[in-house]
Amino acid sequence: MSDPLTGHIETVLERHLPPPVPPLSVIHEAMRYAVLGGGKRFRPRLAYASAHLIGISRDLADFPAVAVEFIHAFSLIHDDLPAMDNDDYRRGRPSCHRAFGEAIAILAGDALQARAFAVLNAIPGTLADPAAIVEATRFFSELCGSTGLIGGQTLDLDPLHQPRTLEELTDMHERKTGALIRAAVLLPCLLTPHRMPDTQSRLDRMAQALGLAFQIRDDILDATADPETLGRTPGGDASRGRATFVTLLGLDDARRRLAATLEECRSTLAGFGERAGMLETLVGNLSAESIPA
Amino acid sequence: MSDPLTGHIETVLERHLPPPVPPLSVIHEAMRYAVLGGGKRFRPRLAYASAHLIGISRDLADFPAVAVEFIHAFSLIHDDLPAMDNDDYRRGRPSCHRAFGEAIAILAGDALQARAFAVLNAIPGTLADPAAIVEATRFFSELCGSTGLIGGQTLDLDPLHQPRTLEELTDMHERKTGALIRAAVLLPCLLTPHRMPDTQSRLDRMAQALGLAFQIRDDILDATADPETLGRTPGGDASRGRATFVTLLGLDDARRRLAATLEECRSTLAGFGERAGMLETLVGNLSAESIPA
User: Is the residue at B85 inside a domain?
Assistant: First the structure.
């Protein structure tokens, strides 16, 4: 997914990370390692694409783009911990706790969460109305919290509430993966000076379908890709006895479900015309055809 | 420290915690266990006392009071983890990870951090100006982050940057303990409709001295109290070879330093007259005379 945004995203992520200088070198190096260690930047790209559709400036979109990626990096650090998924590798490199130790990894995750809220509240008054920033922060913190992202991770780990049906699996992923994808798409809407309730509700529908597509695709990749392409140990969820869209639907039906969900995204975007181009590209990138056979 | 505020604080803390209902019972129970498990509520009390001095309503003060206590509870959960201080007891009960397991404890801490920002941004527009909420959130997130609270915890754990001198120990505690005490005192200032730069800078000086006094007192307690009074394993820091105000100064000088620091708090508050009464009581509660001989 290399395109003109790639360099820009790395630059703004780096700009909002504290410098790795003493006495706080270690924690700041761990934060930088986790954030700047590659990744497809899917969530920042979504934020810029949504900003483009709405017509807000890239200068303003930088803030939600960075905030969602910091939360994403924080959630990956904590998910990889020995007490959670116990993953030694992430994006083809040692996971944060393997590189920095468990204590620093926990704290680096904690600090990235705090930093995400700092970034969202550092938007200059010339770019967004304070009332909009407050609403965006409240919405974002709910999506990150115990009924959103963190709730999803809890359901994923909780032996008493393991999802067994498609409905339960979808609910879990609406929180675990979907919440942050919704945040990436909707934060730019919430930060605009003029409310656009219709646009916002259509984008929300699109974001929810996109979050589901993203997870179905991830499960297909996990079941089919080789470790080098994946950058992590494949088959992890299935081998832990956890339900995935592939274990519940089978590979062929999972591919069909992915295609149908992406089609739902496309039809929701259709009415927006050319302004939806960037979002349509991101939707296209998730198609089943893009998965190595 | 039982007084008319005690019941009120427990009520508002409980009100801002999500209900422990399925499928998210476990994480919400862990959050409630960590927050509602007693504690002196020193930081919420500071927020109400500061609000009283400034003249803002208790309805408004509820929000920063709850937010600082949620961050405090989050930091205690993570500090107690096996990878950190590995403490089995907190406030005379099993620590959160002993009661709920490590994974849920990590996630409950994460969720309490998100919830703290949600609470601060749930202040109704009738009580505070959105611009003030944005500034308060930015300030708060910086104090919680890698240069504040979490930075202090990092220094406390980092074998390469262990504080060896009084200056380094003070710097570490200005972050680890001081940051949240500053937040409790200053958030009410930042949320007032009219800026009071002089009051704010005097309260900031007082808060910084108070944070130091709090930590010196904690080190004295840790060196002298019995486990039952303390509610946790005493002598923990010193027995881990970590510097404390008692190991660096000796017990007598630590008591003298505590008295001098509290005197600094009192003299900074003196000019405020009767409005400072609640803060003066909290300062008095930290006096060396209050420590069991």
Answer: yes
The shortest CB-CB distance from A150 to any of B111, B142, B145 is to: B111
Which chain B residue's Cα is nearest to A100? B158
Of A130, A135, A151, the CB nearest to B27: A151
Q: What is the pLDDT of residues B1-39, one digit of tens each?
A: 457 899 999 999 999 999 999 899 999 999 999 999 788
Chain B: residue whose CA lies nearest to A17: B146
Residue A86: predicted pLDDT: 94
**Nearest CA-CA distance, residue B168 and chain A, Å:** 10
Give domain status of residue B269, yes or no.
Answer: yes
The model's pLDDT over A120-172, given as tens digits with 9 standing for 90+, comes to 999 999 999 999 999 999 999 999 999 999 999 999 988 877 889 999 999 99
List of chain B residues with pLDDT < 50? 1
Q: Residues A191-227: pLDDT tens digits?
A: 998 888 999 999 999 999 999 999 999 999 989 876 6
- A142: domain CATH number? 1.10.600.10
DSSP secondary structure, chain A, as one string: --SHHHHHHHHHHHHTSPP--TTSHHHHHHHHHHHHS----HHHHHHHHHHHHHT--HHHHHHHHHHHHHHHHHHHHHHHSTTTT--SEETTEE-HHHHH-HHHHHHHHHHHHHHHHHHHTT--TTTS-HHHHHHHHHHHHHHHSTTTHHHHHHHHH-GGG---SHHHHHHHHIIIIIHHHHHHHHHHHHHSSS--HHHHHHHHHHHHHHHHHHHHHHHHHHHHS-HHHHTS-TTHHHHTT---HHHHH-HHHHHHHHHHHHHHHHHHHHTTGGGGHHHHHHHHHTSGGGS--
Q: Which of B130, B145, B153 sits opposite A115 (nearest CB)?
A: B145
CB contacts under 8 A, B 139-158 vs A, are 141-142, 144-148, 150-151, 153-155, 157-158
CB–CB of B114 and A18 under 8 A?
no
ipTM exceeds 0.90, yes or no: yes
Domain count within chain B: 1
Range of the domain at A277: 4-290
